[in-house]
Specification:
The structure holds 2 protein chains of 2 kinds. Chain A is an alpha+beta fold. Chain A contains 8 helices and 19 strands. In chain A, the strands form 4 sheets. In chain A, strands 10-11-12-9-3-13 form a 6-stranded mixed sheet. In chain A, strands 14-17-16-15-18-19 form a 6-stranded antiparallel beta barrel. In chain A, strands 5-6-7-4-8 form a 5-stranded antiparallel sheet. The radius of gyration of chain B is 13 Å and the shape is globular. The chains are: A alpha+beta, B alpha+beta.
Chain lengths: 362, 123
């Protein structure tokens, strides 16, 4: 067990990280992610179509660079909360409900370690225009892997119709009213399911009764997301990094760039135009030795040009992998680098992300 | 042949003035899946209590310390090629190095099996 985001969480179950990782890539891995921060932001009155959606979207758009107004009903978007300097306060998911009577509300999921600040910031920004309600009375579990769909089909047949980055409310299920989102943090197809707390344990037991499902700890969650090229907040992204440095330009919608109306826009627009001085990249060490977070990165000439922000062993890659920030001059895939591990220079090169191709259901 | 244990979770199996060194099954289980091992070359002198090898699991990197001073006679290249052997058989095929002991008297400060098991219970 380790402390993570203020919660005691298992690094691994008895099978160990590599077995859990490989299970998720070949069957269905079950992750307890109830530590995360699901919530709902809602206008005082719901319904009212696109106009109501645009109104609630305009509130969160004061904090994020994505075009939430343009989100189609039933879609979720990954985006970032920004500070006035364009630094990333958190990464989060924002969803627009499909149902007409829920227009004017958003489903928002933030990270565990940042949720108190995020929730306070969102409510402060919303003022009296909208109310943020934390979903602390629900459990959140993720089911990830090629067999996730077949497992879910037996329990929530309606959820199978969801495609990547869409979500739906499923009412009157044996586990109460749930929200199923087709998304995840592994690069695999899968679902994140929000279940009332009273039903969470029986739901998890129902999933575990399926032989295709095994519980997966934080260790494999980390190796899976690292192979998938995803960021871990507080490591690969934080308030000192902008979305452009982090290679998350796709989150900055065209309409928002044109309007320049998001926090830190001044700096971010310059970085979009001229390029950022440093960039987040994938890194592939040449040998077998992992390079961990904090490892200095040198150019082949021996100049310090960056640092590893997360690194370890990728079981599917069957070798060490890492992410880090390097000077923009050294950010192109294939650029040779040296990693200074225990005082010795390890050969490495910049690698395209992800390390393992995503298998989302589009 | 006598086997001794350290409070850093190494074992050393001694025959005459030669010792075979590895990490204990307890340590291997705590580390989890071992993915990388770095061993000293034959001929290198190691000093009691100083770092001698590196073992890295998916989770973390750890130093392996020399239980006694001596000269490396042989390093187990099998665990460099297949680090998972350390998890499979930490106190057998997963040995790290063979040492020529510099001072047999240094063994006196180490634990026997019973003392080590008691030590692990309190970890």
């Amino acid at each position: 067990m380790v402390e993570f985001g203020g919660y005691d969480m298992p690094v691994q179950y008895p099978d160990g990280i590599v077995t859990e990782h490989n299970w998720t890539r070949t069957h269905a891995g079950l992750f307890d992610v109830s530590h995360m921060g699901p919530s709902f932001l809602a206008l005082p009155e719901l319904g009212g179509g696109d106009a109501a959606h645009r109104k609630v979207a305009s509130i969160v758009e004061r904090l994020v660079p994505s075009d939430i107004s343009a989100l189609a009903p039933g879609k979720v978007q990954l985006t970032v909360l920004l500070n006035e300097q364009g630094g990333i306060i958190d990464d989060l998911m924002i969803g627009r409900p499909a149902r007409e009577d829920l227009q004017g509300s958003l489903y928002i999921v933030v990270n565990a370690g940042t949720k108190e600040n995020d929730f306070a910031l969102i409510q402060k920004t919303a003022g009296t225009e909208a109310q943020l309600t934390r979903a602390d009375d629900r459990g959140l579990v993720a089911l990830q892997g090629p067999e996730a769909e077949a497992v879910i089909a037996d329990i929530f047949p309606q959820a199978v119709a969801l495609t990547f980055m869409t979500f739906a409310r499923l009412e009157g299920t044996p586990y109460g009213d749930v929200i199923a989102t087709r998304c995840g943090y592994t690069g695999e197809d899968g679902f994140e399911i929000l279940v009332p707390a009273a039903h969470t344990e029986s739901f998890v037991n129902r999933l575990l009764a399926d032989q295709r499902v095994k519980l997966i700890g934080l260790g494999a969650r980390d190796s899976l997301r690292l192979e998938a090229g995803m960021c871990l907040y507080g490591h690969d992204i934080d308030a000192t990094k902008t979305p452009v440095q982090a290679g998350l330009n796709w989150m900055i919608s065209k309409s928002r760039r044109e309007r320049g109306d998001f926090p830190g826009a001044q700096r971010i627009l310059v970085e979009l135009r001229d390029g950022a001085a440093m960039k987040r990249v994938g890194i592939k060490p040449a040998g077998r030795q992992p390079a961990r977070e904090g490892t200095p990165i040198h150019s082949v000439e021996g100049n310090e040009i960056g640092v590893v922000t997360s690194g370890g062993f990728g079981p599917s890659v069957n070798g060490p992998i890492a992410q880090g920030y390097v000077a923009a001059s050294h950010a192109k895939a294939g650029t040779p680098l040296q990693l200074i591990v225990r005082g010795k220079a390890l050969d490495a090169c910049v690698a395209a992300l992800p390390f393992v191709p995503a298998k989302y259901k589009r | 042949m006598t086997i001794y244990y350290t409070d850093e979770h190494e074992w050393i199996s001694v025959e005459g003035d030669t010792g075979t060194v590895g990490i204990t099954a307890f340590a291997a289980e705590k580390l989890g899946d071992v993915v990388f091992v770095e061993l000293p070359d034959a001929g290198k002198s190691v000093k009691k209590g100083a770092d001698m090898a590196v073992v890295e699991s998916v989770k973390a990197a750890s130093d392996v310390f020399a239980p006694v001073s001596g000269e490396v006679l042989e390093a187990n290249s099998a665990i460099v090629d297949e680090p998972g052997k350390v998890n499979e058989d930490a106190e057998g095929a997963g040995w790290f190095v063979k040492l020529k002991l510099a001072d047999l008297g240094q063994l006196n400060g180490l634990m026997d099996r019973a003392a080590y098991e008691k030590f692990c219970e309190n970890q």
